Amino acid sequence: MGIRMPRKKKRVFALSLLYRIDRLLPFSTERRLKWYLDLEWIFDRLAMETSFRHFPAEAHPHRLSANAFLLRRLEPRMHVLDLGCGSGDITAMIAAHVDRVVGVDHDRVAVARAAQRHQRVNLTFVDRDAMTFLQQEEQRFDTLVLSHVLEHLDGPEEFLQRFRGFFQWIYIEVPDFDKTYLNHYRQLLGSTLIHTDDDHVSEFDREELNAMLQRVGLEVVDAEYRFGVQRLWCRGGRSSGS
To answer: What is the distance between the alpha carbons of residues 46 and 51, in angstroms, rounded to a whole number?
Structure first.
């Protein structure tokens, strides 16, 4: 939902002051632009981190948006694997709407905390390699949830190729490089502060991600670009009858 406002805006002292300072800076336009881009990145990062301390996890606008997207697609009969479940907040939300959920993560401490915080009959957390777990698990899963996983991997395309055949549906959520034109300025100027998180290996623009999904044989049936992330619901490599 957007906003409406008076045509005449209130004067903001800090903004007026910064405009005055800008006129006095003895920098080239390129140096000035890189400096402002770095400052924007820093304040954006601080604002995002502070927002997660201000809003409870279940009421954070970012999470509410993701939940709403998922709930359009989840069905009560589904068996879901949440790979890279971390704190288990998403896993627990999904468990309230489907038949069975397993959260998998290599972080043993995170898995233990998730299991302690979120307890439901249809919810399990395991700290094992996801592929090994799938190969040894007798019951099949309909849906794979990959929420902020692909950007951490050295070979995201190979990863998807390995997992696609186990699932009928795959949900993917990753940072959206196209969330702002400023990222493209940063790219052109070679800015260091361009990533969303220090441990990310890749951050995809929309065309790049869709091209990768096509190469591995995933069909995007629903997509959303909000709150700086890409959310895609894809048809996996396993048919409903297999």
So the answer is: 8
